[in-house]
Amino acid sequence: MSAQPQAPRIPRRRAPIAITIGVVAVLVIAFFVFVGLYADVLWYDQLGFLEVLTTEWIARVVLFFIGFVAMAVPVWASIQIAYRTRPVYAKLNSQLDRYQEVFEPLRRLAMYGIPVVLGVFAGVSASSRWQLSLTWLNRTPFGTADAQFGFDVGFFVFELPFYRSIVGFASAVVLLSLLLVVATAYLYGSIRVSGREVVISKSARVQIAATAGVYLLLQAISIWFDQYATVSEAGPIITGAAYTDVNAVIPGRGILAAIAAVVAVLFFVTAAIGRWRLPLVGTALLIVSSLIIGSLYPWVVQRFQVDPSAKTLEAPYIEKAIDSTRDAYGVSDIELIPFEAKTDAEPGALRADAQTTANIRLMDPLVISPAFRQLEQFRQYYQFPDALDVDRYDIDGATQDTVVAVRDLALDGLGDAETWFNSHIVYTHGYGIVAAAGNQRSVDGQPVFLQSGIPSTGVLPDFEPRVYFGEDSPDYSIVGAPEGDDAIELDYPAGGDSERETRTTFEGDGGPKLDNVFTKLAYALKFQSEQIFLSDAVNPESQILYDRDPIERVRKVAPYLTLDSDTYPSVVDDRLVWIVDGYTLTDQYPYSNKVSMSEAIADSEGLPATLPFDEVNYIRNSVKATVDAYDGSVTLYAWDEEDPILQTWQKIFPSALEPMEEMSGDLLSHVRYPADLFKMQRAVLGRYHVTDPGSFYSREDAWTTPKEPTAGANTTFLQPPYYLTMQMPGQDAPSYSLYSTFIPEARGEQSRNVLRGYLAVDSDAGSADGERGEDYGKLRLLALPEDDNVPGPGQVQNQFDGDPSISAQLNILKQGQSDVINGNLLTVPVGGGLLYVQPVYVQSTGNTSYPLLQKVLVAFGDQIAFQDTLDLALDVLFGGDSGADAGDNEVEPGTEPTTPPGEGEPTTPVAPTDEVQALLNEAKVLIEEKQTALSEGDWVSYGRADARLAEIVAELLELTQAEPQAEPQAAEGQ
In terms of CB atoms within 10 Å, which of 2, 62, 338, 542 comes out highest? Predict the structure, then answer.
């Protein structure tokens, strides 16, 4: 049987399969990119800031194209010219022959691929500088000339950085082109190395010399621009051009720029005549000159001329730095008030400061959060932040400082019920704001709530309580339904022990609508959840709410702002809104001291997130923003309309900001001076409160911010500034203010914790529509004399901790496994001196316990007092009668808390019976006798009073059990 011929094998064609897979992969990636861009368009469009997104996109695309072309075309042209002008019959060695054999099949790909790859990187780099480019195109003059060159400050802020970036980009393009030309010329024989001899063809010589000439010309321009950069470079004493810079560095850079330009001309000459000696000698001369003129000569001037007479020679430049720094940080108009602080606590000393005394805040927002959680959380799916906020409200015609917090969602509290449907459809929003009086406490030390409960009740104006946009809102929620459909979203529990729940449907415009298949698919891909696409709870009226944190929301619509690290909630015009402060910054302000913003604003209240713009030397609180807690709408107000940086951005985004005149009086009454700006200013004023150049140079009166006194001796955290309603010397009436203190700057191991300065700023923006308060932002600095030893916060805290009688009483409070917590140590200018006030809390070790305000520590000069209430402590401190009443003067033993735990509505206090009141009065006297006996070491009297006090407590227990209507409600977990 004959063998049958085999059919020829058909070779597999893998190329089409690979191409198909590649095309599919590209399409998939492109689709995901498009989905992300599409979602961004919907988000910005719904919020009314689509202009911001499109302007940024257009700027990025245009700059990417410019960067790509500016890099790819010169590189491609350089490679092409080097290749096309190669010698046709060049004699190559065997090694180069092998290189050519390997490279030749890839030559076309490399000649086009290398420029494209470099162009893509250059385009990405250029597109990232869209803000720099737009501010240059829309720059606004500052109207102030710099002290060295006489240019407008706007040149250094907007123009010089742009010009230097252009020169740097062009230098990179030319340098890469030069390297690729040399590589191509060597590979194809235009450059040959024979022993010690280097032979370069004419075409290669012309191209290399011309390219090198262009590069050196760019370096000459760069060095010339470096002259101007000296006014914003940090030096050992100041930021800016000092004596050595003005007399050696700046002239030297001008000379070096001229030398570099001459050398560039020599390279152009070489391209024409073919002699390399002149440019090589010129290059060597440039290097030597840069060492001598750029480094050695300034060192000689500094070492032998400046250092021996630095205080005299540097004085004019230090004066420039002082003036510029104070202008750049907005402290040039600070009111310096010499303050001879009294240290003797005399009877009636506080009579003239009665309003300030009545507003001293005892509720520490960093301590009482557990009390808010235990008393006002109600359900496991609600939460309060660890650090509460301070605000103020007009109540019955008087300003009341309050500690406030929003009751937000905590989905992890759902436990096993944390399904997709519950997390994104049912539990969609928090509920209400809780506000406690800052200067009051209940009988057992609980906060006195001015607004509380579910539904929210209290003295604040009526407002929309639902919080769809908060600091801890879920990553996304789907809300909304057709009219008539049953409500799905949990609104709030009914209260008490009832498990009934109230349902609601979101009726605002808070997010993009999921009204078509493609949009649902886009968001299903964005959040990687197929439930968004498949769930029957998603209907044509559904909206998806995301990016709900107020600070993140403002950051996205105003990418040119640096935002304050803290936002706070306020009831404004019947709405609950978040107020966010925005800053415009630069690090190019001439002669202004550079400060690390992250270091300046870090204190015991917390460390800021990583800042994209850290080293700054100019700051303005240029924008006030509000974010509606119900619908997430963002409004930006141009707060500092004279700021040239803000004016520049208003040209870029003309419809993004509202004028300050559009702010309502209700909103202005809650606007405050931002803490981060104040921290930056106090960091600067530690040295720049001194305006005499000689004293500044010697650091004779340098100050620093005290360390947090309650954090222990080894802490590195600074004491934060505090908001208080108080009257500073020079003010006619108390106003809402922010203050901080100064102590002498430590030198080596020597550190004196005595007060040297007290800085306060008026934070009351007024309450008239569109009219900012006349004194808002007014900085006042109390300067204490050098020979005045008013104790600083650290010393006062040591006095409190080391006093034997106080320690004995604290040990009593610690009985029963309780912890004693020191609250914020406040410093208040009253009575002609400085009064220290510190609340003391007691917290049991139970899981549901919370701090209760039990005692108050006060100090004035070297005298201290420790009593149950601030009012009593002040009377003891000031000889039996302080002359003023504190805010807690109505707290009497036996009265009910204003808001019992677990209830949403305040109750009316029940007065004790005559018999109970008599026993309470006797107990009060016995407590005072115990304290007196303890301080005098009379243990017999102490034991007698203690025994009688125990009898009275037993009698009170028996009476209150017989009269349950007068029994104070016990605190949960205590």
Answer: 542
Distances (CA, A) of 208 to 10, 179, 202, 222, 379: 52, 9, 10, 21, 76
Quick: pLDDT tens for 32-81. Answer: 889 999 999 999 999 999 999 999 999 999 999 999 999 999 999 999 99
C-alpha to C-alpha distance for 176 and 911, rounded to whole angstroms: 88
Give the pTM.
0.86
Confidence check: pLDDT of 895 > 70: no
Task: Tell me how far apart the alpha carbons of residues 955 and 318 are, in angstroms, rounded to a whole number.
Answer: 73
Q: From CA 239, how far away is CA 964, in angstroms rounded?
A: 71
Q: Which of 678, 682, 676 is nearest to 743 (CA)?
A: 682
Give Cα separations from 270 to 207, 264, 493 (angstroms).
10, 10, 87
Written as one letter, the residue type at 566 is D
Handedness of CA 287, 292, 298, 303 (dihedral sign): positive
Taking the C-alpha atoms of residue 907 and residue 969, their distance in angstroms, rounded to an integer, is 11
State the Cα–Cα distance between residues 402 and 459, nearest whole angstrom: 12
Helix (H) or strand (E) holding 901: none
With contact defined as beta carbons under 8 Å apart, do 623 and 646 qualify?
A: yes
- DSSP helix/strand/coil, 481: coil
The reported pLDDT for the residue numbered 748 is 58
Q: What Å distances lie between residue 933 and 252, 940, 942, 945, CA to CA?
A: 78, 8, 5, 9
Radius of gyration of the chain (CA): 36
pLDDT in tens, 501-530: 789 999 999 999 999 999 999 999 999 999
Angle between helices 804-813 and 914-936 in degrees, nearest 10: 130
End-to-end CA distance of the chain: 105
Taking alpha carbons only, the member of 954, 923, 873 closest to residue 350 is 873
pLDDT in tens, 362-383: 999 999 999 999 999 888 999 9
Interatomic CA distance for residues 704 and 684, integer angstroms: 9
User: How far from 210 is each of 193, 257, 274, 325, CA to CA, in Å?
Assistant: 21, 18, 11, 45
Q: Would you say the C-alpha torsion 103, 106, 108, 111 has a positive or negative sign?
A: negative
Helix (H) or strand (E) holding 134: helix 130-137
Which token pair is 451?
A: 């607004």
Helix axis angle, 315-328 to 675-688, nearest 10°: 170
641-676 pLDDT per residue, tens: 999 999 999 999 999 999 999 999 999 999 999 999
C-alpha dihedral (494, 495, 496, 499), degrees to nearest 10: 40
On whether the CB atoms of residues 545 and 523 are closer than 8 A, the answer is no
Q: Report yes or no: 270 and 212 within 8 Å, Cβ to Cβ.
A: no
Residue 607's CB: how many other CB atoms inside 10 A?
13
**Residue 199 scores a pLDDT above 90:** no
Are the beta carbons of 488 and 503 closer than 8 angstroms? yes
Residue 194 DSSP one-character state: E
The answer to whether the CB of 126 falls within 8 A of the CB of 67 is: yes
Locate 171 and state its tokens: 């230098």
Higher pLDDT: 445 or 154? It is: 154
Give me the sign of the Cα torsion angle 234, 239, 243, 247: positive
Q: Tokens 């609250």 map to which residue?
A: 823
Tokens at 670, concatenated: 């809650």
Instruction: Map residue 519 onto helix, strand or coil.
Output: helix
- Residue found by looking up tokens 């949403």 in the block: 904
Output 292 or 936, whichever has higher pLDDT: 292
Q: Are the CB atoms for 825 and 791 separated by under 8 Å?
A: no
Residues 6+ apart with CB under 8 A from 682: 705, 721, 740, 742, 759
- In the DSSP assignment, the letter for residue 720 is P
Contacts of 750 (CB under 8 A, 6+ apart): none
Please give the pLDDT value at position 187.
78
